[in-house]
Amino acid sequence: MKQSNNRNKTIVSLTVYEEDALLYQDALLLYLVQKFCGERTCSGIYHLLKGKKSSQSVQDSFLFHVAPFFHSCSELSRSCFDARIEHLQRAQLIKPIDAECTRFVLTEDGVKLLDVFPENRLIPDGLKSSIKSMKKVAFG
User: The organism sits in which domain of life (predicted)?
Assistant: First the structure.
């Protein structure tokens, strides 16, 4: 990955991402792929975002410390989600770790790109208050 300090641009493969222009949804998916660390399929990420009320999704939200994102994208379509995952794979920001291409990890470029996205922008203000209440309910 080539990095340039001119106007906060990071060049990844053939795609130019400006720090402020990185799509929130892409940064969110990169963050969740990183948190799941290949231990769950993309379907697990999708179900987390949609808020599927299965014991697996609820447990994963706490196990991987991503509870604020549970049910945060209830209107997300599977086709849109799959298109963003495919885009991240084509941009070589994530790579499959299984033959079915259902579990991913970040590439070196994906890690570097996520590092330039301010972590405090990953959780919208509306979800920040729910983090405190979720921790209180979960941990007393």
Answer: Bacteria
pLDDT in tens, 70-117: 999 999 999 999 999 999 999 999 999 999 999 999 999 999 988 887
The mean per-residue pLDDT over the stretch 117-129 comes to 63
- Domain containing 72: what range? 2-139
Backbone angles phi, psi at 12, to 5 degrees: -125, 120
Number of domains, the chain: 1
What single-letter DSSP state applies at residue 21? T
State the pairing for strand pair 94-96/104-106.
antiparallel
User: Which residues lie across from 3 on neighbouring strands?
Assistant: 10
pTM over the 0.70 mark: yes
> Can you list the pairs that 9-12 forms with residues at least 24 positions away whose Cβ atoms lie under 8 Å?
10/112, 10/113, 10/116, 12/91, 12/92, 12/93, 12/109, 12/112, 12/113
Maximum separation of any 2 CA atoms in the chain, in Å: 48
